[in-house]
Specification:
Layout lengths: L11 E5 L3 E6 L5 E7 L16 E4 L25 E2 L10 E7 L3 E7 L1 E2 L9 E10 L2 E10 L10 E11 L4 E4 L12 E2 L11 E4 L4 E5 L4 E6 L5 E7 L12 E10 L6 E12 H12 L6 E3 L8 E3 L13 E4 L6 E3 L5 E2 L5 E8 L3 E9 L10 E6 L6 E6 L9 E8 L5 E8 L11
Antiparallel strand pairs: 1-2, 2-3, 4-11, 5-8, 6-7, 7-9, 9-10, 10-19, 11-18, 12-13, 12-15, 14-17, 15-16, 16-19, 17-18, 20-30, 21-23, 22-30, 23-29, 24-29, 25-28, 25-30, 26-27, 26-29
């Protein structure tokens, strides 16, 4: 691999509410490179290279991604299209377009760099809004795509966001069992030898994880939009600062389509404190985040479909719109976690060109794969008009415990539109006009 450049000189912008201090580096696309207690010099964020920090990172096709006549470096070529907020592997930093700091919040926008390349900007812009709330930083992120390649590539796992911390924060803690929000014992995530790749993956039923030190103090990441996380530790645990190699990693992930012209947003929180304090913050702010309430009036809500032919394109037109045909189709929701007894029914508004039966599958904490033994079938009228359908789930074989996701296979017949899928009825006043 060719030699990398040196890290650019820091250009910091800070906000501090007397409890937590957060800083972004304007020399690195405005990525978060500092999180500490107010008045403390102990920064938890790792910036060993431009692939670390706390930053936005997106993935799409093709794989490999070739920009004009520029090919990616071989070591990273399998990542495909991968713009990130800080810069690329060769230490070419992303360019900040706009920055605002009013003392209470920070806004920053940038042109990201393609990580697998040397000096190739992304055909997109990133935006981030950061505000402090007690011991936490609330962050909202957005990608504005402007790709010349208009292909709708396969949905890929997206980091929401990528979080890297320093060597002392080497214990990865979370909650993974079937009694969320009841104070049950936490689990430490340790990657076993049977796991391929550098990181472990898990389902957290409380939607958070934390990297902490030996005193159980560190940084938590709360992401209510997905229950699927990856992470771990690389290097020698227990020591090292922001510019050193050892690092802990957390990334909430879910699969997303990234259309050539999409504006895609997500939010998350960084919580600084002890494990007890981090969990208390999540309990206060995130207990009801998991209920299924997918309204496709504005975006896909983390859903993707096969075949990967979007009949409506972006922006969405009357919800998720998938071509079906003789080969059928499937629409898959994001990783979640809700108690089956809290959701005895699901309510669907859909339109189908062809009549027939649809199948709703679900996965559980104990059985994470979709299968016919965890499914119900229900009739769908044809003709292309929207219809409201109640799908009974209570009492269905295999429907119990923690539900971690759903998939809907519509009837065949040219096309199918899914307007919403929710846990309680939605009246006509909320219908898309």
């Amino acid at each position: 691999m060719p030699k990398r450049k040196e890290l650019p000189k820091e250009k910091m912008s800070f906000i501090d509410n007397g409890t937590i201090k957060v800083g972004v580096n304007l020399a690195l696309g405005g990525a978060i490179t500092w999180v500490s207690k107010s008045g403390s010099a102990e920064n938890v964020v790792n910036s060993h290279d431009l692939g670390r920090q706390i930053q936005m990172s997106y993935y799409s096709g093709p794989n490999p991604y070739i920009a004009g006549d520029k090919k990616p470096v071989e070591h990273w070529a399998k990542l495909g299209w991968n713009p990130i907020q800080s810069g690329d592997w060769a230490m070419n930093p992303s360019k900040v377009l706009e920055h605002k700091n009013d003392g209470r919040s920070i806004y920053v926008s940038c042109v990201p760099m393609q990580w697998p390349h040397d000096g190739v900007p992304g055909e997109c812009t990133f935006e981030a809004w950061i505000r402090l709330e007690g011991s936490a930083a609330r962050v909202r992120c957005r990608i504005n795509n402007a790709r010349s390649d208009k292909t709708l590539y396969s949905a890929r796992h997206q980091e929401m966001p990528a979080v890297y911390v320093n060597g002392p924060y080497c214990r990865l803690m979370t909650y993974t069992n079937a009694e969320p929000f009841m104070g049950s014992p936490l689990a430490e995530i340790v990657k076993g030898p049977e796991v391929k790749g550098p990181w472990a993956s898990w389902t957290t039923t409380e939607f958070w994880a934390a990297q902490v030190n030996k005193r159980d103090w560190g940084l938590g990441v709360w992401q209510p939009a997905t229950s699927r996380f990856i992470g771990g530790f690389a290097g020698r645990p227990g020591s090292g600062g922001p510019k050193d190699g050892p690092t802990g990693y957390i990334a909430p992930i879910r699969s997303e389509f990234l259309d050539h012209n999409i504006g895609h947003e997500y939010g998350y929180a960084l919580i600084l404190g002890t494990l007890k304090e981090i969990r208390e913050w999540v309990y206060l702010n995130g207990k009801w985040a998991a209920m299924p309430a997918y309204d496709f009036s504005k975006d896909r809500q983390g859903w993707y479909h096969r075949p990967e032919i979007d009949a409506g394109g972006w922006p969405l037109k009357e919800g998720l719109w998938v071509q079906t045909g003789e080969g059928g189709a499937s629409l898959t929701g994001p990783p979640s976690a809700w108690r089956a007894h809290d959701v005895p029914n699901l309510y669907v508004r859909a339109a189908s060109k062809g009549a027939g039966e649809a199948t709703l599958y679900w996965s559980t904490l104990e059985k994470p794969a979709f299968g016919g033994e965890r499914s119900v079938r229900f009739p769908v009228k044809g003709g292309g008009e929207f219809q409201d359908i109640q799908v009974p789930l209570a009492g269905a074989p295999g429907y119990g415990g923690i539900i971690t996701g759903v998939r809907l296979d519509p009837p065949s017949g040219e096309w199918f539109k899914l307007r919403w899928l929710v846990h309680r009825p939605m009246g006509p006043a909320t219908e898309q006009k």
